[in-house]
Amino acid sequence: MTVAQQPAVTGPTERIRGLKERMLDEPRYLSIEQALIVTDVYQAHEGETAAVKRALSLAEAMRRIEIHVDPDELIVGNRTTGVRAGVVFPEAGISWIDRELDTMSRRPQDRFNVRPEDAATFRARILPYWQGRTLEDTLRAEDGPLLDAIARVVKINQKDHAQGHICPDTAKWIRLGPAGIRAEAAARAVFATPDQREFYDSVLIVLDASMDFMRRYADLAGEMVATADSPERAANLRETARICSKLAEGGAETFREAVQALWFLFALLHLESNASSFSPGRADQYLYPYYLADIEAGRLDRAGALELIEALWLKFNQIVYLRNSHSASFFAGFPIGFNVAFGGRDEAGRDESNELSHLFLEAQSHILLPQPNLSARLHEGTPDALLDECTRVIGLGSGMPQVFNDESIIPALEAQGIAPADAVNYSIVGCVELSTHGNNLGWSDAAMFNLVKALELAMNDGKCLLSGAQLGPRTGYLTDFASYEDLEAAFAVQIDYFFEKMIEACEKVEEIHQRLLPSAFLSSVIDDCLDRGLDVTRGGAHYNLSGIQVIQVANVADSLAAVKKLVYDEGTVDRARLVAALQTNYEHDPELARILINKAPKYGNDVEWVDAIGNKWVHYFARKFEGRTNYRGGRYHTGLYTVSAHVPMGANVGATPDGRPAGAPLADGGMSAVYGRDRRGPTALLSSVARVDSYLGSNGTLLNMKFLPRLFKSQEGSQAFASMLRGFVKLGINHVQFNVVTRDDLIAAQKEPDKYRNLTIRVAGYTAYFTELAEDLQNEIIARTSYEDS
Amino acid sequence: MTTGRVFDIQRFSVHDGPGIRTTVFLKGCPLRCRWCQNPEGLERAISLWHFENLCGRTGHCQDVCPTGAITLTPVGVEINHAACTLCGDCVEVCPNNALAFDGRDITTDEVLAEVSRDAIFHEVSGGGVTFSGGEPLAQPAFVRDTAAALKSRGLPTTLESSFHAPWSSIEPLLPVIDLFIVDVKVADPAAHRVATGVSNELILDNLRRLTKALRGEGRILVRVPLIPGYTATPENLGAIADLLVAVDPSLPVELMNFNPLASAKYRRMGMAYEFADAARAYSPAEMAGFQSLFAERGLTVR
């Protein structure tokens, strides 16, 4: 193993630093500007189809929304003049905005300021038109009872916003520009069938307008040259004007042009569909030819390229996504997911990382903001230098890059019918969801299925422990089950019941998206929509997957392992005692909770039979999709992640036999062990995780691990970490991300020890759990940590 | 099959030899270093321990004890160690895991099974197994047999020891241990006795023999723990450096910064610890000062 390369410790340029400061200083506001334009267009074209109204309103927005250029910006473009605005997107949902308008500035998570005049205008002009016409209202009117009936077990997503989690064909967009793609669409339109005519017309409308959008930036930057306060700024504005003007008419040639083209695409995608996560994907691959050409021609040096990348990284932080407060609790902290992947291998196993992969990491170490969501694709042949640089940046504590494993993901995608060439070129969309590049509507977050809740119902005759309501079929109480197999049978019946209803609900949601939210612009950058003359919402994409998340391996494994061992195998816990304790949340029998926690083995400790229980039920669930297709004709597949949803989903589950009290969060992540229950260190946790078959996580998986910054301070610590990542690749785990905890984390750990119970620290000749140390010692470590880590 | 007594087997060990290691901590030690970081490794005998901070005061331990060795008191639990037969009933019944043994007996095969769990990590990191303690050389047959079995499976082995043991315990390890980490603490024999309870003559003699046997193979690392008032003085470190130069100037030396955190373990075990409040880790500048004492004598130090 080579010694970690130390890149030049320079930090961002003055220009980047200034842009970043100004961006972070700016408050977040709700924006209704686009909503007003869209409302006007819809009202003026009442008789038209949704596709035409959508195209015309998007075109109008591209031509009319106010635009802004900062004279220091190397990369320009946004969908609002302010940064990080919460854009109201009336087509998808308006009722929730009305309900939450007055609390949006002080809700617990992801706040936005609301100008009083905007609130008034919203209620006077936007709300009255849209009530009853939105995706949200239509779904509620047509399918409300179905969604409500399953809500405690299945959370159906995509109910009040347009579809995101998409990786467009950015390479093609950069190469051809809107003009080139328009020419392709126009040529195909010549042969359009009557069914296809409207689609092609819509595409032409929005691509024409996107050229105008770029020209407006060219004009604005050009006008600003005269008033620029320095020759450098004037030169920069002239260059911006030149590039925007060029991109309106054709493809990019230089690196800066390519980066600008990329950003225009993503700003426009967000303008069309205010959705969570459009992801650039493997930008180090498709930007590399432009970089190389510039370097070879002497037009650009490494530092100049880095500054452009950092300018793009800042842009990724300027668009956030307005969620309702419920959704914000599930996906806290604006995870809009400009997911950029780097590294990876080709079909022959050859490494594909390049100089841009390293520059992306360097940019990340300078910017340290939430976006982009930077994802390393590791494989057997990842060079030591890249792995060591990943280790260094992870050690900085921004939680990035997160790490993906080509060796398990590529076969997992192929098992879902993805062609080898597409599987090997996979990207990540949003947080951890897996997708092919530029040809997939992956519908990654169709639903989350709470297996833990289904298990609760299986032990309590189908009745909710929290409300007493009869939610599922009456399959008996735990006291009725003479054997562990009887319990398993009841669990299966509960899963089956909610599974069928979930499928029905998913189909309804897709049908209404199709009806109300055709997306011509997105369709123009997703293969095979133009070929087939079919909108992406109607199944125009080459791949049409739907992802369902299975929640949550650790709690299911721990609960069933405790019941199997203590109730059925050893008989030390009586069935009636357990049911009574679950029904009363352990209030009269706290000792039983301790027994369940301490006397049964837990997932995450490399105990084969416990891990196998988790795997068994994910299998059971995943196999139910065999032979089924979704509303667009594609496959369903499963994912194992919750992002931050383990908290609200846990709030909805009563006491569980893993000793967890009612309402407490579930295990975090998706693949993680329950807080503090993994006690045998990182390699034992990884060994457990590897026992859940990775191909069951083809929609994405999430494993969180925490380390102290100290590990990264020594050469042997950094090398051990890098080696651990190699082990992760060999074990065939799809994903891992790291929290490198700081002094603040340790203080929080002191206050909330339950949440940090698996945080380990090297104490003497051994490693101990931080929260098990006495308070004075913890204080010592905290004091020392601030010394060592300052 | 050989059986040994351990107080812990730790996975993902990164400071006890190259790569990611599994460290086997053997129980029992002939030394009594005042700063011992692993006091549970001192005694060879296994004891029952009660952890007050975990205790839920259920009284189940008292109820279940067949010999009446456990008494629930208003402030805790009293264990009559003379009466305790180590049957483990109380450990089994305590819902809070507040009672535990401080060691267990384990066979070579069981160690191999535990080690093999991290085979992938050993392989990718060039890591392996480290025998530490306690004093591993106090259980020479177990270390020898286990190390031989590990070697035959291609796993790199490290021994971390005080080297206070007869040469006859060390010599058979030469073919089965890849790296010997030798703790050298105090140069002066009398001062060594004050600090550790034994003189250092045997230790230094062993170091000379080992150096002779393995000359030029790069299989020895000298470690010097920096303990305020005992080892971390310019006089002592200078004397150690002189001594090492005389033995073999090519010996690499690693200085181990003082780690004040063992005090918690002592507290938890109800044992006195003279460094409880005193000390802190040495600053990078102080460490550099200590290192220079070795470097200026031509030794490779870090």
Radius of gyration of chain A: 26 Å
Work out the helix count of chain A: 31
* Second-tier CATH architecture of the domain at 145-160 and 439-702 in chain A: Alpha-Beta Barrel
Which value, in Å, is the CA radius of gyration of chain B?
21 Å
Q: Could you say which overall geometry of chain A the principal axes of the C-alpha atoms support?
A: globular
* Total of domains of chain B: 2
Tell me the strand percentage band of chain A: 5-15%
Low-confidence parts of chain B lasting 5 or more residues at pLDDT below 50? none
Strand fraction of chain B equals 15-25%
Any guess at the CATH architecture of the largest domain in chain B? Alpha-Beta Barrel
The stretches of 5 or more residues of chain A where confidence is low (pLDDT under 50) are 1-8, 762-767, 784-790
Short description:
Chain A has 790 residues and is of the alpha/beta class. Helix content of chain A is 50%, strand content 7%. In chain A, a hairpin with a 4-residue loop joins strand 14 and strand 15.
Word description of this protein:
The complex is a heterodimer of chains A (790) and B (302). Chain A is an alpha/beta fold. Among the domains of chain A are: 14-144, no CATH class; 145-160 and 439-702, Alpha-Beta Barrel (Anaerobic Ribonucleotide-triphosphate Reductase Large Chain). Chain A contains 31 helices and 15 strands. In chain A, the strands form five sheets. A five-stranded mixed β-sheet of chain A has the order 4-5-6-13-12. Chain A has a four-stranded mixed β-sheet with strand order 3-9-10-11. In chain A, a hairpin with a 4-residue loop joins strand 14 (760-762) and strand 15. Residues 1-8, 762-767 and 784-790 of chain A have low confidence and may be disordered. In chain B, helix 3 packs across helix 5. In chain B, 32% of the residues lie in helices and 19% in strands. The model of chain B has no long low-confidence stretch (mean pLDDT 94). With 302 residues, chain B is of the alpha/beta class. Chain B starts with a strand and ends in a 7-residue tail after the last helix. Chain B has helices spanning 60-64, 89-93, 108-116, 119-125, 140-152, 167-170, 189-196, 201-213, 234-247, 262-268, 284-295, and strands at residues 3-13, 21-26, 48-50, 70-72, 77-79, 99-101, 104-107, 129-133, 157-161, 179-183, 220-225, 253-256. Chain B has two domains: 3-44 and 103-295, TIM Barrel (Alpha-Beta Barrel); 48-101, Alpha-Beta Plaits (2-Layer Sandwich), CATH 3.30.70. Chain B is built from eleven helices and twelve strands. The A-B interface holds A 1, 591, 594-595, 598-599, 606, 680-684, 687, 711, 714, 716-717, 719-720, 723-724, 726-727, 730-731, 762-767, 772-774, 776-777, 780-781, 784 and B 8, 10-15, 18-20, 25, 37-38, 53, 56, 58, 95-97, 117-118, 120-121, 123-127, 132, 259-265, 267-268, 280-281.
